[in-house]
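quick q for whoever's on today - can somebody do inverse folding on this one?? i tried earlier but teh output was garbage lol. tokens:
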């Protein structure tokens, strides 16, 4: 495998034509590569970050809600020592899948432009140029956070990603959000010695893993974690934050703000390449659910990107089938062309 990657890097400045170019090396992008490989199609996966970059950026101690078999791709077994697999186990699994299948992947290479040309697509990246008959856009949603849009959000103390609770030992931490990410950040940092305040825009906690929610509710009830519901941060300063609550403004001493407010797909990339999006707040991309083909001929969507702003519609376990749908459609189309 290493010999292949070495040779490929030397030559990738030259244009190479593939049956399929897959944008994104997350689980669904890998699944599309596996399916293309099994169907005898030439392909390349291009990823702007590391392998399964979104999972790599999950919190260090993150546990999936799904069981391991529901995270499997390509029919390759995912064994776990736990009822629910961890981030570390998922990284090991997807890395071994890519390695054992010798998937053709270029990492840390960003797709910058897509241009129709002579019945193909020319793909320009940060490191090379390629041509492909078909494009599969398998972007995740973890790269662009939903912002608070308040003064002071650009201060270094405001974090939209949470990784390791140790960092916040003996710090005054405000966690913003109502769902899993906020719950995990609040509980883990509190257990590592942080003074934690939870700010929830809704009147109650949201969708939280069943083994985590009672824990957080009890910490709030006992006063270990202070919680403000139906509330929002209105301003962040170097050593304070302002919170608008039903009882008025509250100012807290503060060292860090963890804004666990969710993420969104890269809509600007979709628009730049010409994928049509709905004009409402959902920003739903246009595609055929039977084939996953977009309004652009031979350009397909796969994975969470299909849900637009509603990132809770598609997950690994229910979008693995996108890879099969897409590659089956492409294979059938190519066979029909060969008959002519």
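ok took a stab at it. sequence:
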């Amino acid at each position: 495998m290493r010999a292949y990657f070495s040779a490929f890097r030397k030559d990738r400045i030259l244009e190479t034509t593939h049956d399929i170019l897959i944008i994104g090396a997350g689980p669904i992008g890998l699944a599309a590569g596996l399916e293309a490989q099994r169907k005898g199609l030439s392909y390349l996966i291009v990823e702007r970050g590391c392998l399964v970059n979104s999972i790599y950026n999950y919190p260090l101690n993150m546990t999936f809600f799904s069981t391991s078999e529901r995270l499997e791709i390509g029919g390759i077994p995912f064994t776990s020592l736990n009822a629910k697999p961890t981030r570390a186990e998922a990284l090991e699994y997807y890395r071994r899948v890519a390695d054992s299948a010798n998937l053709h992947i270029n990492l840390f290479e960003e797709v910058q432009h897509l241009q129709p040309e002579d019945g193909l697509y020319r793909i320009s990246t940060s490191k090379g140029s390629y041509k492909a008959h078909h494009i599969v856009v398998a972007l995740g949603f973890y790269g662009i956070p939903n912002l608070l849009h308040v003064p002071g959000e650009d201060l270094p103390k405001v974090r939209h990603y949470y990784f390791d609770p140790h960092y916040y030992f003996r710090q005054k931490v405000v966690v913003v959000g109502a769902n899993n990410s906020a719950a995990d950040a609040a509980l883990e940092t509190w257990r590592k010695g942080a003074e934690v305040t939870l700010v929830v825009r809704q009147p109650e906690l949201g969708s939280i893993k069943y083994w985590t929610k009672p824990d957080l509710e009890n910490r709030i009830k006992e006063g270990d974690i202070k919680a403000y519901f139906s509330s929002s941060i209105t301003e962040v300063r170097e050593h304070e934050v302002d919170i608008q609550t039903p009882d008025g403004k509250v100012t807290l001493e503060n060292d860090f703000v963890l804004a666990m407010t969710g993420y969104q797909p890269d809509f600007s990339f979709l628009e730049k390449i010409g994928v049509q999006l709905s004009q409402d707040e959902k920003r739903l991309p246009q595609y055929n659910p039977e084939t996953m083909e977009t309004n652009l001929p031979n350009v397909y969507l796969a994975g969470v990107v299909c849900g637009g702003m509603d990132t809770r519609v598609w997950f690994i376990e229910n979008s693995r089938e996108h890879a099969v749908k897409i590659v089956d459609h492409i294979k059938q189309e190519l066979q029909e062309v060969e008959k002519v």
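fwiw Residues 287 and 294 are 4 Å apart (CA to CA). also The chain has two domains: 2-143+263-339, 147-259. so keep that in mind when u check it
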